[in-house]
Amino acid sequence: MAEAEEKNRVVEAKFVAGATSPDGLPPPALAEIAFAGRSNVGKSSLMNALMQRRSLVRTSNTPGRTREINVFYARLADGLALNLVDLPGYGFAKVSKAEKRAWAPMLEGYLASRPTLRAVVLLVDVRRGVEDDDRELVDFVARGRKADANKPPETILVATKLDKIALNKQKPELLKIRNAAKVPVIGFSAETGEGRDALFSRIRAAL
What we know:
Radius of gyration: 16 Å
Oligomer: single chain
Low-confidence stretches: none
Shape: globular
CATH superfamily: P-loop containing nucleotide triphosphate hydrolases
């Protein structure tokens, strides 16, 4: 097993808490990495692949099912411990406008005020690229703490479902997303595990 794979092997992973507002979350202690993206982007599958668990983060055939901020604890083989935070998906047409309005304060309140938040992993479908909802979230994260002494969390861009496109199209599509977003992008497949160590490398750098 390669050194990076062994270092990033998850030896313990568990659900910690779910809350409908930042106030309902556990007290901030460990560093947190949040995961955000459109409701059908494969966020639950990516988080399960990252934590090397089959169904710790619940997946659904109905996008937009996550109604809470869900916190998961992970401890890696080299001793690194952190919380991975599953944020409600956004941008799915079948979710009512009332629900979207209810989620906005929860999402924005967490991103703007959580002192232990170190990075936001923004997931986009490699076949769709960065969309308007994604850009709004990036802008919010960047400006959300300007009045605060804390540095804004880093944004890590990940293109999911890499296995859904032909191998010879993967690099061109990733380059297209990188050029459009003007930031580095990690290609990720929850099916094959490709991109897992690269994502952990960025997460470690953000900590």
